[in-house]
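Escalation from tier 1.

The customer reports that the assembly of two entities below gives different structure tokens on two consecutive runs. Tier 1 could not reproduce it. I'm attaching the input and our single run for tier 2 to review.
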Amino acid sequence: MNNTLANIFINKASQSKKIIEIESGVEKTHYEIANRAKEISKSDDIKNGKIITVILPNSVGYIECFLGCMLKGSIFSPLPYFTQIQELDKVLTYVEPSLIITDRPDVRETFSEKYKVSDVQSLTAADNSFNEHAIDINKPIALYYSSGTTGNPKGVLYSSNNMLNLISSIVRGFKFSDQDKQLAFLPFGHTASINYNILPALLTGCDLYISNGFEFLRSNFFSTLSDCQITYVEIVPTVLFMLNKLKIDVSNLNLSSLSFIGCGSSTLPLGAQKEFINQYNIGVGNLYGLSETGPTHIDDPREKNWQPGSIGIPLDVNECKVSKNGELLIKGDNVFIGYYKNQNLYEDVVVNGWFHTGDLGYMDNGRYYFSDRKKDLIIKGGINIVPMEIEEVIYKHSEILECVVVGREDSIHGEEVVAVCVKNGSITEENLSKEILEICRAELSSYKIPKQIYFWEELPKTASHKLLRKDVRKKINKISVR
Amino acid sequence: MNYSEIEDKVIAVVSNTLNVKNIDLQSSQANASEWDSLAYLSVISAMEEEFEIEITEKNINNFGSVKNMLNEVNHL
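Tier 1 run:
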């Protein structure tokens, strides 16, 4: 038998444990889900070694597709549900999926001539027998697309071996068990929900509650934790900021089942973390990880003498060290096997097995601390945005001489997208701003569109004319705009 | 500010926050695909700033549609 996460789940799928959609009320036992996953894996459209792009909301169907693809040895490639059509076009051209699974009519309408498109319900078994497919555990089983420029897209390839080792380590590190009740509400198109909630719940065989998003839980967030006796939930700093603001009265709720709350995907300011802990008397761990490795550390507030501020200790799946220039490096079975169609980039970032995270940090007394990002990523509400992707779109305007996109600190999203341009010609700044936004609206998903566009006479550069992106970021963050 | 001005302002806040033009009185999370989880929090934040509203446990459910937000502002 293949030792894969999907097989482990299928073989112990219980009739008593469930996955429950909170908003729709749909609930299915693990046993039912396992049977449906087997059926999906037998569909002629799910092919071994081929990429299956999934554009689905948070749902049981999404998980069944994930399992079905894993059983068949297909490469599961989730995309955020609300990705704009123009952007999907770019991503799909790069990914070249053999099948798109979606319930979005606009996706079907736009892409069904170029790609095979199906909904979940139409994936039925070609025959009734279930034959286990031989899976090479070192071959890719997931392709996590993260944004990039046209010339340098980034799709992280994760093998079955990566996945099982990572999730087993998370289960040990977070002390998850089949008695847990997990809540997953972050978008399933991103890896946070996959790695912290979905896959650990499948591996341990525990109950999993699914919500379509924080906007559906809103003021009911804590009462949902109480009513469902949730033991673990993963959030992002944006949600924590909002919960801090809301000052919800939890005095009458029974939150005794909750082990702690994990908060990751972008920088968690220490002040906000402490405010949350003081306000709600609930431990919140500052979790660190990247698409290329999954979570790498565990910051567990249940530890004796635990203090907020660090990202904790490395999970047992990987080693962590700090390089001479202060960069966090990771080595272990969780380190991805390649960037899709971009081997050169892989060789740049994985050297002698050590993955160079591009993040700066340090270690003190066995605990690791994140201090800054070395790379130019903007992280808005936990979602990674590559500034060059937006710059590439802005440069399409003929009046733009130079352009740089940076992150500006934001009290809700952590960072907000801001563009700084040098214009050419006599067009007014107001008109040019409008035209730039038009281009951005046509080509980018809404969360990537600059919140503000500045026009400067020139951009700061080194003597060798290299753009000083960090100087722009610093200057932008000093400008009072609120 | 009269009702019509408030209405224009609420629509402008949503439109600017979501970066879409076709926002009107009927717009809500149910019919504007850009109004997703992340945008929902952006809209709340922008409304707080524009109208000096305090978001609380009691009113947080009123920011998923232009109509509800308009009611919220008018009850200030």
